[in-house]
Amino acid sequence: SPLDLEQCSLQVLEPEGSPSWSLLKLLGDRGCTVVELAESLQALEHTEALRCLSHSGVKIVVQPDSQAVLSGQVVKLCCWATGHPFVQYQWFKQEREVPHGNSPELVLSPVSVKDSGFYICRVNSESSFMFSRWARLEVCELQDLPHGLLTGLPENKLCICNQPQPQNLTVGDALVLECGAVGNPIPHYQWFRNGFPLANGSKNVYTVTYVDVGHQGTYWCHVFNDREDEDSKKVEVIIGRKAVAVEYTEEDLSDLQESDPQEESSHRPVATDKVALLIGNMSYWNHPQLKAPMVDVYELTSLLRQLDFKVVSLLDLTESEMRNAVEEFLLLLDEGVYGLLYYAGHGYENYGNSFMVPVDAPNPYRSANCLCVQNILRRMQQKRTGLNVFLLDMCRKRNEYDDTILILDALKVTANIVFGYATCQGAEAYEIQQLGLANGIFMKFLKDRLLEDKKVTVLLDEVAEDMGKCPLTKGKQALEIRSSLSEKRALTDPVQQSTSSAECLARNLQWAKAHELPESMSLEFQCGVQIQLGFAAEFSNVMIIYTQIIKKPPEITACRAHITDFPLDLDVDPKEANKGTPEETGSYLVSKDLPRHCLYTRLSSLQKLREHLIFTVCLHYEYSGIEDTMDERKEINVGKPLIAKLGLHPGFKTQNCLQTCCMPGYPFHNPVESSPEAAEYYIPSHCQPNSSPGVYHPTCACSNSIAQAEACSCNGTARMLAPSHEVQHYSPTVEKQNVPVETTDDTVELELLLSDSLSFSEQQ
């Protein structure tokens, strides 16, 4: 009543009185609800308190998961939500309400094939409502298998229940191959023919409406989810020609006898081999640190290996290491070989030449400190390669500190060159961060299409279209393609090589040398403890060592082991070794493939290893009743693992034309004469790498004064678009930045387009 409220208000006059406590006690004593408390506060016009009581509407805390199950099983889709004063549920299958589907759990028992489809749950509380995410339910019917097999399947385990069947067709028939699998998370599918992934082959049913003899071959389906993978059985699809009565003259028959049947059957280009060199530079000594190259190189490595490329993937190379890596790459090339070079890191472009910046480049850098891409192309042409593909994920702004114009030998006129630049001339490239990892914008779209069986230029055109539809990069970054490709060559082209070819054997041996891992070993100590030592490759120059105690005598109460005493060449930080999870070592990409319950140590920059990799395994253990800790040590020599065998570090290689053509004093001429179209660019008086903490200044690596920008409108926002690699703890001092950085504030507009889980950064 008004009198009660007045009595509560008068408590303010008491020495320790509180109107709020008095009101709450009064309402509590009388068994009132929160609704009545809100009415009282409204009468008091206490808006701040009312704001505290107002509910935020419906919140879904458990989302339904997609599932693939067998017919006859019990399926449960769950959606749990909170809301005030209570919530109500309604399940839908597509647009139709599910009868009796008004509880947080939708149970289908037993489930049948007709229950397959997409489900969603609507949660409402009074006038507010919210929808869950869509959950896909796939119900697979067992074919030609006993129904009792249902009980033998482990719950949630990935299992192929319907295998594809061989087919014998004639030209013009329809090909339908089906593969059914169950599991949780829901399985994904990728169809293969003769070892090559098929475009549009990412569903459980693969169809070709009109087959030709080119569709003949061995098919199978790779089924996988986040936890497991499995291949279906391989089946043969035979395509025969239809019998057609045709009248031939004697002259026609003689022409047929002279024709080459193999040439008629297929005009598809082939490669004698496929080789790729992937370089990602992140940990720059004198320039902003980058993030995206690690993930980009790892994902591209995985995709290219599916296309039968021999891949060498390297992180963080110095100038001499990059030059030596290119030399090794050239050794793998020969006539008809497809060569692919991918680079992600700092870079720039001057007078039509593109330069890749090593991690040890000085500040400022010039062409003498970098690698010229066009010169590498010239040397690839000398090998008479079948296809030369360059994918450059770097900025292409002009370097104001470098006025040298390189006089390179003229490139040969060959119709087999493709350049895919992540951004246009004079522009920057960007990266996107998600769940703690970063992808370059270019790689984000490229990886979705790389396995498609299309001409390289057509594939890159479609990647460019995909990038153009992204509102986050519109007006910021656009893929540029330069090509002289006249034949219909694709990255999916088959490899036809002579196993007796000396060149082929040499290539295989050279590539295999760079990818040899030490054998897993079991170490037995005098006390009876056994330790398993294993090795895994993350990149060609990054290796994970994992240790696990596999046997402990009963009289030993406790024991622990770690590895130490690594060669000084590798500069291993003891604090970063022997971690409980791969992620703690910085190895996020292969963690799912490593055994659990081990200690992990990540060794990077293996190319710096001059001698054999020798380290010590230390064991500490305690006996029951003895306080002292006992120690044992074993020295382990695993030779030179992975890329260390090739000796890329300084002193192992001689200088070559890649170096000498870029040295200071090399002949150059007036830039105006060589470049009739003068490029306009903005040169700021200083660089502001720390003006917005979330911004990377990537692939054109700024040099740096750390003065705070006076008119920066981004206000240190952590979510924005910026050149694709982040500035982290970087403080060299030079008066001007090495490459111009735009100081416009229009990146702030993009902030509104970003979701909370994404942050953007600039890849210079």
What would your notes on this structure say?
The chain is built from 15 helices and 39 strands. The model is unreliable at 261-265 and 654-764 (pLDDT under 50). Helix content is 17%, strand content 27%. It has five domains: 2-54, Death Domain, Fas (Orthogonal Bundle); 59-140, Immunoglobulins (Immunoglobulin-like, Sandwich), CATH 2.60.40.10; 159-240, Immunoglobulin-like (Sandwich); 273-512, 3-Layer(aba) Sandwich (Rossmann fold), CATH 3.40.50; 515-646, Immunoglobulin-like (Sandwich), CATH 2.60.40. The chain has 764 residues and is an alpha+beta fold. Helix 1 runs antiparallel to helix 2 (19-29) and helix 3 packs antiparallel against helix 4 (47-53). The strands form eleven sheets. Strands 2, 5, 6, 8, 9 and 10 form a six-stranded mixed sheet that branches. A hairpin with a 5-residue loop joins strand 32 (521-524) and strand 33 (530-539). It comes from Cardinalis cardinalis. Pfam families: Ig_2 (PF13895), Ig_3 (PF13927), MALT1_Ig (PF18703), Peptidase_C14 (PF00656). Residues 58-132, 154-236 form the Ig-like domain. Residues 272-399 form the Caspase family p20 domain. This is MALT1 protein.
